[in-house]
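user: Kindly work through both lines:
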Amino acid sequence: MATGKITSRSVARFKGEPGKESCLWDTEVKGFGLRVQPSGRRSYIYKFRTPDGRRRNRKLGDETALTAEAARRAVTLWVTNKALGKPILNAKPVVQSITLRSLCDLYIEDYAKLHKKPKSIEEDSRYIERDIKPALGHKALGEIGSKDIVRLKSDFVDTPVKANRVLALLSKIFNLAEEWEYREPNTNPVRHIRKFKETSRKRYLNPEELERLENVMGDAEVNGWTSQPVIDAIRVLQMTGARLREVLNMEWTFVDLPNGQVHLPDSKTGEKTIFLSNKARRYIGNIERKLDNTFVFPGQRKGAQLINIQKPWRLIRERAELNDVRIHDLRHTYASLAVAQNLSLPIVGKLLGHKSSKSTERYAHLYTDVMIAAAKKVGG
């Protein structure tokens, strides 16, 4: 535990321990300290006990918003109030007003980079830079109300899915603003804003379309107008129902062919096992391994993985006359084929790697089609 009188000089010298939360505790005012979080964020805090003996922490403000001397004056006032029996928990933190632009930067550095995956950070950063900052970034947090959020929402009336993603991100950012004491509690301006209704896109390839797709893939394989790793990746996507990133990140050390499994240490939903059909197991087993590459689907550069298959996919689907089919629709098609095999909804969810049953419920309507088809056969 580091101790010393908290001054501007001692605060500047105190760096904390990399990757750990650490504190510099003042030697004059008990409970007064500088906290350095794993992200590097630095703030003045005061630890004390309530009259009933419970421990409490109170944040005075970020180091960027307060000098050490100002923080000392604030905590000294709190100590005096505590001695007089006045409640510290109701005291307002001493922080400067910041703009939404600054809060967004803090969100990325102090929250997203610690708790979210790189792909999600990239998506959040895109929404922030392209949509949130241009519209509201210049405003101070205290100036932003529900009317500003409604006005921003109206700009995305033609893109309801994107609008809902932006609203969800803003809501999280404002919740953190309250947690970090940049806004008063229960003042999130996004809280009562209704999201747009989303119509989920359901596109499944029928047997005739699957045959057209395979014919085009076969032609690409024979004539070489698309690389073999791209063809292999698309076929494995069809055979497993895995997400694109899960397939492209697949390494040979993850593959357990004897047991028909691929163990992914990380995915969108965390650690995951992909279960292989006999067809998928045979196909992956026949993929040529490169001695200088650990990835199942190698890229062009030495040791690199296949990064992006969107361009060759657009060419393949165009030749197969499937221009409206996305790569992710191969996952939906896998699910529809699983339902056609009379597999239960929980089993389908397990095969797809869903964490929540709600994610699998989108396929429930497929059982109606299966039952109708079965009824027709029974009725002759």
Notes: The CA atoms of residues 81 and 88 lie 7 Å apart.
